[in-house]
Structure prediction request, 246 residues.
Amino acid sequence: MKAAPAAQKRLLDLAELDSVIDRLAHRRRTLPELAEIDEISARVARLATQVISAETEAGDLAREQSKAEADVDSVRIRAERDQKRLDSGQVSSPKDLASLQSEIASLNRRQSDLEEVVLEIMERREAADAQVTKIAAERDGLVAARSVSEDRRDAAFAEIDKESAEVRGKRSEVVADIPADLLALYEKLRDQFGVGAAMLQGARCLGCRTSLSIAEINRIKAASHDEVIRCEECRRILVRTAESGL
Prediction:
């Protein structure tokens, strides 16, 4: 392949710009905020599951409390009804009176026992509600922290994207100075090796940092200035400049 020396030298400018673009892309992919957001999101997800579990427990206790309170009301109503019968004097038989008094005493004990159950459930429910509040507050705090991290990420993205757009604009200007066939070869090599062209500095390829053999240097010296040279070691385009010493 043939290309004017000036066009070949523009490959070095292109390679430098591509290196900057690659660094910016790597920086964008590895922003500390991204890992921070992922970590916070994982914690938020775990807490959300815990909130659901705690809310379920609190809901179960609320239903259990309602049932227990209904049982207390039922027993209390029965006791009050029996007490009214006793107080009204409607029951005159000693046997029936004894039976009614025994039933009232039993109902009062039952009511007392059920009220203890209600109190115990209320305490458990209060603890469950407090747990829901605590976990939800922790979750909300993390969501707020994640929002701050996302704002920092977006600001960093905007800065990187702006710089990348500026570099890509300069790249377009450089590409305009490079023949299509030479550019196609450069892009192919860049896809393969990450860097498509490198300077020949002295007897060394700056792409793979390999020192060329005497025979290879002599071959390059004998080549015309417009011939496109490739490094035998890494196959990148070798660009000759004043620093090549040829």
About this structure: The chain has two domains: 5-25+179-244, 31-169. The chain has five helices and five strands. The CA atoms of residues 37 and 146 lie 6 Å apart.
